[in-house]
Structures
1.
Amino acid sequence: MAKPSRFDDESTPLAQRIAVGLSKVGLSLKFQAWQAAGARGLSPTQGQVLALLLTSRTGLRPSTLAERLAVTPPTVTDTVKALVAKGLVERRADASDARVSLVVLTAKGRAEAKASASWPDFLSSAVEVMAPPEQEAFFRGLVKMISTLQREGQIPVSAMCVTCTHFRPNVHKDPLLPHHCAYLDAPMGARHLRLECDEHDEAAEPARSEQFAAFTG
Ligand code: SF4
C-alpha cells in the first residue's frame, strides 16, 4: 500500500496523463489534424496555442508559448492577436509581474480547445484497459521517451518534471515514492510525474542531463 502524498490530491489521473503523453509523441500527426481544423477557421498554430493553454491553470506568457511550440515570438504575437479577435483568448496582467501579460482561454476558447483536442480522452479509455501497475510502468517509459525526443530536438519542449530544476529523482528509499519535488516539498512516484506544470522551472545543462541519468538510472 503506497504512503499518502500531497500529490495524490493534486495529480490528475495517471491514465489521463499517459494519454496526454501519447498525444505529445504524436504531436506531428496532431499538427496535421489541426490543419483539417481549417474549416473551423483555425490555423495549425492557433490550434496548438489553444491546446497548450488548455493544459495550464493560470495561462501562459507569450515567451513560454513560443518556447513550447518552437516558434518565434512574432509568430506568437500574430497568433494571439488573431485568437483575441476571434474571442478565443484574452490577455491578462501577470500577478507576479505587472509588466508581463498572460494569455488565457476565454470560455468560448476553452470549449473550442476541448472540442478540437478530444484525442487524449479517446486514448484514455484504451489506456484504462491496463492494470494500474502496467499504467505506471508505461507512463515511466513514456516520460523517458518524451524527454529523449525533447533532448534530441524532435519535439518542442514541455514543462515536465524530469527537466525541472525542482525535480529530485530517486532520492527516497520508498520504491513507490522515490522522487521528490523541492518546489512543493513532497515525495513523488512515477504515477505523479507531470508532463505540463505551471511551477516548472527548466533546469540548465549539465544539471538537466545529470538529473535525467539519475531518473533513468
Ligand atoms: S515544480 Fe517541477 S518537479 Fe515539481 S511538480 Fe512541477 S514540474 Fe514537477
Note: The chain has a mean pLDDT of 84.
2.
Amino acid sequence: MIKQEELRINIDRLVGSLRQLGDIGALAGGGVCRLALTDEDKAGRDLLSTWMRELDLDIKTDELGNMVGIRKGRQSVPPVLIGSHLDTVGTGGLYDGSLGVLAGLEIMRILDEFQIATERPLAIANFTNEEGVRFTPDMMGSLAFSGIVAASEMLSAKTVDGSGKTVGEELTRIGYAGAIPCGTFEVDSFLELHIEQGPLLEEEGVDIGAVSMVQGIYWTEYQFTGSSNHAGTTPLHLRRDAGLVAAATATFVRQLALKMGGDQVGTVGLIELFPNLINVMAERARIIVDLRNTDAQALAQAQQLLEAEIELLAAAEKIAFEKTELVRFPPVQFDREIVAVIEKVSEDLGYSHKKMPSGAGHDAQMLAPICPTAMIFVPSVGGISHNIEEFTKRSDIEKGANVLLQAALRLLNRPLD
Ligand SMILES: [Zn+2]
C-alpha cells in the first residue's frame, strides 16, 4: 500500500480531461467559449456528470445548478470540498475554472485507483456562472451556495444581451435546475486550485502561490446626461458634453490609483457614448469604474474620492448623472491554517512557493464566510487570461494539482473533534 504522502496525480489523465472538456465550445483560433447556461455549458456539465458517475459519486445539484459530487469518507461528516467553475468568458482559455474542477476529479480518480479511504468525505463542485458574462453578478452560483444571497434573487436575473431569458428559465432548459435549496449544504473546508491570471509567479520563477486573501472589488456604473450638439458651431463654454466627463473620469481613476499607492488599482474598461458620432458631442455616456484594493478602508476611501471628483466634473460641464452600485465585494481573508498547510505541502514536495493575494474574484471568496477556505495558484504564461492565448505549462499544472492533492489529504484526515 502506497503511503498517502507519496501519492501523486496522473498528469497525462488530467491534461487529457482538460483537453476533452476544452473541445466543448472550442473556438476556431484556439480557446473556448462556454458561457453560463448555454448549450455548450450544458455539454460541459454533461461530461462532468458522466465522469462523476464513473466514480460512483453521490451527485447533488442545487436550485441554482451548482453541481456537487461526493465520495464517501469513513465518517458521516461534512466533506472537504474542492471546486471552481466550468463556465468561461467569450474568449476563454482551457484552464480558468476548469483546472480547479478537473484537478478535483483527478484526485478522486487517484484515490480510487489506490483504494484510499479518507476520514472525511471528499467532494468536488462546479459552481454556476462564475464569470458573470451572460448574467450578473459574477460568482453567482457560489454566492447562493453559501447562502450569502437568496437563490430566488439570482434565478430571476436576466441575460445581459437583452433577450429577456432568466437564469431560472435557462437552468430548466438545459436540465440543471436541481431540487436542493441553496445555503443548506454543509462543508468542512474548501480548496480551489486556479491559474494566477497575472504575471507575478512567472516573473519571479515561483511554482506555487499560497493565496492568503482576495482583494475587494467595487464596480460602479455612472450614466452622464448632457446634450448633443454640433461639433463645429457650438462654442466650448456652451457645451454639455457627457463624453468629456466620462473621459475625465477614466483619467482620474488612473491618477487616483497612483496617488493612493499600496495595492490600489482602478480601471475604466467600458465607455459607451450616445449617439457616438464623429461630429456630435455625446448627449449621454455610460461608464463602469472598477476599483480594487486589499485594504477595505482604503478601497472605501478611493470610492469616496471618486464620487467627489465626479460631482466636480459633472458640475463644471453642467451634466446630470446617475450612479448604480453593481458590485461591492469587500476584501476576503482566507484561513491562516489552510494557507500554512499549502505552504508546508509545497515545501515537502520541493516546490518554490509564496504567499500572495488574489487580484481576481473567485468562488473561494464566497465559501470563506461558511468554512475554512484557501486557494492555490499556478503560473499563467505571460500573465494572460480571459484570452484564447491563456496557457499554463503542463509541469506547473502537475505541481499545482499535487499540492491540491496533498493539502486535501491533510484536511481529509485531520482528527475529528
Ligand atoms: Zn476562474
Note: Residues 85, 96-97, 130, 194 surround zinc ion (CB under 6 Å).
3.
Amino acid sequence: MRRAVLAPLAALGLALVLGGCGSGSEAVSVPGAHPDAAPKVMEAFGCGSCHMIPGVDGADGRVGPNLAGIGDRWSIAGRLPNTPANLVRWIMHPQEVDPGTLMPDLGVPTQQARDIAAYLYRH
Ligand code: HEC
C-alpha cells in the first residue's frame, strides 16, 4: 500500500525537477545530493583529465565534452535522455550504457554520483 502511494509521488517529484529543463533559468535539483561536495569528488576520480568542468581545479581535459551547461542539453553522451537518474547512471556505468565509449567505469558510488549530477546541473 505504501509503495503504491510513494511511486506516483516519486514520479511527480521527477516531473517537477524536469520542469525546469528547457527554460534554462531554473537549476535542476537532485534530491538528497550535496553538490558542494562534488568538486573534490571529481578531482579524486580524475574527471578533469578528460573534461573541462567549471569550478574544478585543473579540470581542463579535452578527451570528453566540456561539462559546462549540462542542464541545457537534451541528451547525455548522445545516448540517454537528459534526466537526473540517467546522468547518475552514466556517471556510474558509462560502459554499460554505451559499451566501448572512451569514458571508463570509474567505480563512482551512488551518493557521489548524485552529488556530481546535482553539481553539473548547476554549472
Ligand atoms: C578517460 C577519459 C574520461 C574520464 C576519466 C571521464 N570521462 Fe566523462 N566522458 C568521456 C568521453 C570520451 C565522453 C563522451 C562519451 C560519448 O559521447 O560516448 C564522456 C561523457 C561524459 C558525460 C556526458 C557529457 C555530454 O555532453 O553528454 C558526462 C556527464 C561525463 N562524461 C561525466 C564524467 C564524470 C563526472 C567523470 C568523473 C567521475 C568523468 N566523466 C570521467 C571521457 C572521460
Note: The two ends are 39 Å apart (CA to CA).
4.
Amino acid sequence: MNIRVKDSQLRIAVVGGGIVGTCCALCLQLDGNNVTIIDQNGPGTGCSSGNAGQIVTSYCVPLGLPGIIKQVPRMLMDPLGPLTIRWQYLPYLMPWLLRFVQSSSVERVERIADALYELNKDAVKTFDPLIKLAKAEHLLVAKGRLDVYQSGHEFDKAQYKFNLLRNRGVRVELLNSKQITELEPELNEKCQYGAFCPDVVHTTNPLQLTQLLAKAFQENGGSILREKVNDFQLKSTGVPSIKTNISDHTFDKIVIAAGAFSRPFAAKLGNKVPLDTERGYHVMLPHSGIHLNRTIVHGDRYFGMTPMQEGLRLAGTVELASVNASPNYARADNLLNAAKGVLPSLSDKGATQWMGCRPSMPDSLPVISQSPVHESVFFAFGHGHLGLTAAATTGKIITDLIAERPPHININPFKIDRF
Ligand SMILES: Cc1cc2nc3c(=O)[nH]c(=O)nc-3n(C[C@H](O)[C@H](O)[C@H](O)COP(=O)(O)OP(=O)(O)OC[C@H]3O[C@@H](n4cnc5c(N)ncnc54)[C@H](O)[C@@H]3O)c2cc1C
C-alpha cells in the first residue's frame, strides 16, 4: 500500500495510541499526512490489550436493549453479575444511566442498530490493507464466532438480538447441541443452544496487533511520543496547543482518541460528552488444556472464550464504576467458574487476571466527529464493546473528515453534540 504524496503535508497529533488511535494515525499517514501519536504508555497497552479479540463484522446490537430498566435493581444487588453497578459510583453515573435507559426503547434501538451496522458492515475488509501493511495476517483467524447457551430462557431472550442482526442481513445460524459439539468438541452437552456467526474474525493477540500497526506507522515515518497529555492551551484563533508532562506541542490538526480517558479532553476543548466506562475483566489461561477452533461467547454469562497465542482468554462482563476504582477480581474468578461449567476439563494453572476500561457512550455509539467548536479538532472515542471491530473504519472516517472528503457512511449518529 502506498502513501499518498501531497504538496503540503498536514502535521497531525493523535492523542492516544490504542487500537482506535493507531488505526487513525496509520490511515492519516497513508493519506499523506505527517502524523504523531502521543501516548503515555505506548501503543496498544490500554483497553485494547486485554479484549476478547473479536472483529465482529456487521455487529449492531447495543448494550441497552428494551426492558433493560427492569434489570437495574439486579445490577445494583449483584456485584458479580454479568452487568453490575458499583453503589458508590451511582450518583456520579446517574446522567449516563438515564441516557442509557432512554436509548433502550424499541424505536431507538432500531436506529442505533442501523448506525452500528453501517459502521461495522465492512470491518474486516477495511482492516485488511492495514493488516497487510503491518504484516499481521498471522494474528487473524477467520472461523466465525459461536454463541452457546445452557439456558433455554436466555436463548429465547437472545432471539431479539439475533433478529436485530438478521433483519440487517447478518448471517446467524441457530444450532442444536449436536451441531455445537461438531463445531467445538470440547464443549459439554450442557450447551444446548447455539448461534453461529460465520463472518466474525478473531485476533490471537490484540496487543501485538496494535503494536505491529504502530510499528508499520513508525517505519513509514510516523512519530510516537511517550508523553502524558495534561492539558490544552486554547487560543482565540488557530489550533489549541497540547501540553504534556514533557513539553508543549503545536500541530495543524488534533485527533482525540484517548479511549475512556477522553472526556476531560473533550470538555476542555468545548464539548461535554456523556462518556463513561464499562469496566471489563479477563482471565488468561496459558495451560488451559483445551483446544477451541474459534472464539466462543458464553451466552448465559455474556463473555468471550478466545483461543490466543498465549493461551485461552476468558474476557467480558460489564462493571459500571469509575476509571479510577480498584478492580474487583472476584469478577474474573467468576468468569473462570462459568467457563468450567461448559469446558469441564479446563485447567487454571498459571492463570493471570486483567481489568480494563471500555470507553462507553450511553447509546453504544462511538463519537467519530469533527469538533463543532474548534475546526482543527477531531474526536474518535467511545467505542464501548466494539473498539477493535470499528477501529479501521473509524480511522478511514477521521481521515476523510480531515481531508474534507465526505465519509463513506452517514456520520450524523456519531456526532459529538448529538446529546
Ligand atoms: C473484557 C473486554 C473485552 C472486549 N472484547 C472486544 C472484542 O472482542 N471486540 C471488540 O471490538 N472490542 C472489544 N472490547 C472493546 C475494545 O477493547 C475497546 O473498545 C477498545 O480497546 C478501545 O480502544 P481505544 O483505542 O479507544 O482505547 P484504549 O485502548 O484504552 O487506548 C487509549 C489510549 O490512550 C492513552 N491515554 C489515555 N490518557 C492519556 C493521556 N493523558 N496522555 C496520553 N495518552 C493517554 C492510553 O495510554 C491508551 O493507550 C472489549 C473490551 C473489554 C474490556
Note: The CA atoms of residues 271 and 417 lie 7 Å apart.
